[in-house]
Specification:
Length: 491
């Protein structure tokens, strides 16, 4: 695999294909009286979300509009991190086949990390031959060219590159899903090769984006009115290590913060082996940097950590986590934990619970180990019995839920600044938002709180006005995964 910078000329060429496809579709419209629509379903992590926003940007350039229920172009952006993510995709594909039978014009595109797994690609080719276009996570910038050939020539296309492409994001079109939040990858790929993980195989080697271009992109995003930026990378703390002379992640974070471009700066993920005192210092000194650190520890046993190739010990992890707690006492820590890694003994698992008790994570994503083809751990034979795993998993969840609830209870009564994200899906008189410490707040707004803006009365129906607004909310009642509150004022 090699690293290939995608030039601006190449991206301009792709934009020309968008125009050509638009022309093709306009001709189709004459016969069918309807311009084609698209829908994107995204599985997996924020990096996939970000890729999907770019592909949506291309579709919009082609002149297509979104239609979730009956799209003419359906794009599935897949994830290979665990077996159940893959099974979900294959399960859904059956349903999409039925949609295509109803609408034979429909084009089904499958892309993303699963396409780099040869077993998945084989299965797709063998059993799902109604799929029109297949490409890998490194190929998204060439979507217009591939789609043009599919539409104009009719043949199916499978194109999964091994090159580690680095398209510069500010040259790609983007349709952002949230009007207040900009997802900004600062680097792609991963070099860590944790023995259980597919990401280094699906996303290739680490490559950092040019520092100055990130900075000027962020300045533009701020001018466009984004309140929140989320800096993305599999391991943001190794940002710049592949660029001789480039500033490292804490300096990038610091520069963004001192420019005061955003009310809130978020980032993920931090690998514990690369978190420095400098990072925690920059977080502590800049109030616009979120009061939250996502720090996956995976296992509390040094033996297991070693076999996972994580590059830190439990002692080192504890030092980092406790240092953060000291420096930023109001901050929260979330984590990822894997249960049932091959060879995990009861004593190893007890060490995981022990570490959880010492750090008291404010929230956690908990996973059952899933054997992944092509990874080093695939060959580890001392698998843990499923019954033992499910017993450990429920003990772990019980402890974490307890900690999550205690953490939320500890802030009840506080008046906190939140960034409003929208209206709750389940109850239209409830709004949602997040604190800087990433706590999810569901809150009500007293009728008389809605301001009048000129002759325009802001009401609960003005969701667009609410999204991205800041407000002070009194925290009233703690639940395990959220807090109920009441708005006191808009900011
Ligand atoms: N780069 C991030 C993690 C990305 S994947 C980091 O290193 O922190 C998100 C999480 O999925 C991981 O932290 C891990 O807990 C989980 N995960 C990854 N591979 C897995 C596997 N094979 N089985 C179970 N969980 C896995
Ligand atoms: Fe996977 Fe480890 Fe890289 Fe995270 S750091 S993406 S867990 S290999
Ligand atoms: Fe999944 Fe790929 Fe992200 S495997 S978690 S979509 S990097």
């Amino acid at each position: 695999m090699s690293r290939v910078i995608v030039s601006k000329d190449e991206l301009d060429r792709q934009r020309e294909y968008c125009v050509l496809i638009g022309d093709l579709f306009r001709r189709v419209k004459v016969s069918s009286d309807r311009f084609p629509t698209y829908s994107i379903k995204t599985y997996g992590c924020q990096l996939n979300e970000s890729d999907s926003e770019k592909m949506a940007g291309y579709f919009e350039l082609m002149g297509l509009s979104e239609n979730e229920n009956t799209p003419d172009i359906l794009l599935l952006n897949t994830c290979a991190i665990r077996e159940n993510a893959e099974e979900r995709l294959f399960g859904n594909l059956g349903h999409f086949k039925a949609l295509k039978t109803e609408n034979p014009r429909m084009i089904i595109i499958v892309c993303g990390c699963m396409m780099k797994q040869s077993s998945d690609l084989e299965r797709l080719r063998k059993h799902f031959n109604f799929v029109d276009l297949v490409f890998g996570p490194q190929d998204i910038h060439t979507l217009p060219e591939m789609l043009y050939h599919r539409v104009s020539e009719g043949q199916k296309i499978v194109h999964v590159s091994d090159e580690d492409y680095l398209p510069d994001d500010d040259d790609l079109p983007v349709l952002r899903k949230r009007r207040f939040r900009a997802l900004v990858p600062i680097m792609y790929g991963c070099n860590n090769f944790c023995t259980y993980c597919v990401v280094p195989y699906t996303r290739g080697r680490e490559r950092s984006r040019d520092y100055r271009r990130i900075i000027s992109q962020l300045e533009q995003l701020s001018e466009q009115g984004y309140e929140e930026v989320m800096l993305l990378g599999q391991n943001v703390n190794s940002y710049g290590k592949d660029l001789p002379g480039a500033p490292e992640f804490p300096e990038l974070l610091n520069e963004i913060a001192i420019n005061k471009w955003f009310s809130r700066i978020r980032f993920m993920t931090s690998h514990p082996k690369d978190v420095s005192d400098r990072l925690i210092d920059v977080m502590a000194k800049n109030s616009s940097v979120e009061r939250h650190l996502h720090l996956p520890f995976q296992s509390g046993s040094n033996d297991v950590l070693k076999r996972m190739n994580r590059g830190y010990t439990r002692e080192r992890f504890l030092d980092t986590a406790l240092h953060y707690r000291n420096e930023i006492p109001e901050g929260t820590i979330s984590t990822d934990i894997i249960v049932g890694f091959p060879g995990e003994t009861e004593a190893d698992f007890e060490m995981t619970l022990d570490l959880m008790r010492r750090v008291r994570f404010d929230s956690a994503f908990t996973f059952i180990y899933s054997k992944r083809p092509g990874t080093a751990a695939e060959k580890f034979t001392d698998e843990v019995a499923p019954g033992v795993i499910s017993d450990r998993f429920s003990r772990l969840l019980h402890l974490q839920n307890n900690h999550s609830l205690l953490s939320n209870q500890s802030v009840i009564g506080n008046l906190e600044e939140i960034l409003i994200e929208g209206i709750s899906h389940t109850n239209k008189s409830v709004y949602t938002g997040r604190t800087s410490s990433n706590r999810l707040i569901n809150f009500t707004i007293p009728e008389d709180s809605f301001p009048v803006d000129g002759s325009f009365q802001i009401t609960p129906d003005n969701e667009a006005w609410l999204e991205g607004k800041k407000a002070m909310v009194r925290l009233i009642h703690a639940k395990t995964f959220s807090i109920e509150g009441r708005l006191e004022s808009f900011l």
